[in-house]
Amino acid sequence: MVSLTVSLVAVFIPLLFMPGVVGRLFQEFALVLTISVVVSMVVSLTLTPMMCGHLLKPATMQRPGRLSRMTEAALDGMRDAYGRSLRWALRHEALMLLLATLTVAGTVAMYVVMPKGFLPSQDTGLIVATMEGPEDASFGRMAALQRGVAEAMRADPDVLSVTSVIGAGIVNPAQNTGRLTAVLRPRDDRAAGCRRNHRPDATRARRAARRHRPPLPGAGHPDRRPAEAAPPFSTR
Question: Could you give the 3-state DSSP secondary structure of residue 163?
């Protein structure tokens, strides 16, 4: 019971640390399920045995029906089959040890070879970019800067369309912030270099945009903090 509860809680741990707006939505879901599983374990170890001892009758006072007898017969058959398989395994200890060794070796090999990550990146076909300017930036100035960034993104042949919004958002809607969403072509229709690159397309696009986009007065990388900066792309 305890090991099963720990396994279930471990499943929801990644949801607690998932970034972005989707992560915030799933945090409450993960917390509720984690607390429910822990409470269920406590009830199973304390209240359930007490209620069974109080409510269940001795076997001599029970009169099982046909369904109960059939269920018990099926369970007894499963128990007998497990006993036969266990006795066979104990008679072939060398074979069982060999299988266990191969299983551990295969698990280690798959762990080394297979790609892994806490929250692995995936190609959603979308690139989300945000712009943030000084607090006194006017709407016209932000519109001009964001229009230039949108045109630079549209110049990429792998981009189908770009949606640009100013002053609207979920986290911090303000006049000095903007949001752009670029819809990419299907992966098979993109440039050959993009398909061969195993790096997530958002990372590739971010680096390519910094390297190839024309200089845009007032917009730049946030690490250099120009007058009005364009933060890096981020995937959702």
Answer: strand
pLDDT score at 94: 93
Cβ(176)–Cβ(135) below 8 Å? yes
For residue 177, list its beta bridge partners.
132
What tens digit of pLDDT does each residue of 77-130 get?
999 999 999 999 999 999 999 999 999 999 999 989 887 766 666 677 888 888
Three-state DSSP at 206 gives helix
Q: Which domains, from first to last, does the chain contain? A: 2-58+70-113 (no CATH), 126-212 (3.30.70.1430)
pLDDT category of residue 63 using cuts at 50, 70 and 90: confident
- Mode of pairing for the β-strands spanning 159-166 and 126-132: unpaired
Q: How far apart are CA 47 and CA 61, in angstroms?
A: 24
Backbone angles phi, psi at 183, to 5 degrees: -95, 120
Q: How far is CA 150 from CA 165, 194, 230, in A?
A: 10, 21, 11
Closest by Cα among 121, 172, 148, 87 to 18: 121
User: What is the average pLDDT value for the chain, to the nearest integer?
Assistant: 77
Q: At what angle do helices 47-55 and 20-45 cross, to 10 degrees?
A: 40
Parallel, antiparallel or unpaired: strands 126-132 and 177-184: antiparallel
